[in-house]
Amino acid sequence: MRICGSWECFSPVIMMDMARRDDTGITLGSGNVFADLGFPDAVERQTKVRLAVTLQSIVKKRKISKAKLAERLGVDDSTAADLARYDLHHFSVERLLQFIRKLGYDIDVTIKQ
Fold first, then answer.
1. Element of type H or E holding 7
2. For 20-92, where are the alpha helices, taking DSSP H only?
3. Of 23, 34, 49, 100, which has fewest CB within 10 angstroms of its CB?
4. Cβ proximity of 52 and 96 under 8 Å
5. 94 with 100: CB under 8 angstroms?
């Protein structure tokens, strides 16, 4: 499922969100915007965005062009462009982790209760 940008897509969610407001009109978020918007795969979406932000931070820090990034990741230019635009619907968490490893980073996974 992709996040669509049309008003029709978000109008039921906005109406649901308005129902959770208190007297001040302020709605506190959960810390995961995708959960707040009612997406069933909210944790996965948030994880993908965090990984993509990490990738973009590496790219910016190292001043890697999209063409060079595509070459280093072993993908075509349009796939590298999708990463730059945060168009993540066709990337798995595992694939994003592979991309980070291909840029020379180690990954540690921590599980908390």
1. helix 7-19
2. 33-36, 42-62, 66-73, 77-84
3. 23
4. yes
5. no
pLDDT in tens, 64-94: 998 999 999 999 999 999 999 999 999 999 9
Cα–Cα distance for residue pair 86/103, rounded to 1 Å: 18
Q: What is the C-alpha R_g of the chain?
A: 17
Distance CA 92, CA 99 (A): 11
CATH class name, domain 41-113: mainly alpha
Q: Where are the domains of the chain?
A: 1-40, 41-113
State the helix-helix crossing angle for 66-73 and 93-102, rounded to 10 degrees: 100
The answer to whether 21 and 27 have CB atoms below 8 angstroms apart is yes
* Amino acid identity for residue 41 in this structure: D
Residue type, 7: W
Contact 32, 42 (CB under 8 A): yes
Determine whether 63 is exposed, middle or buried from the number of CB atoms within 10 Å of its CB (0-12, 13-18, 19+): exposed
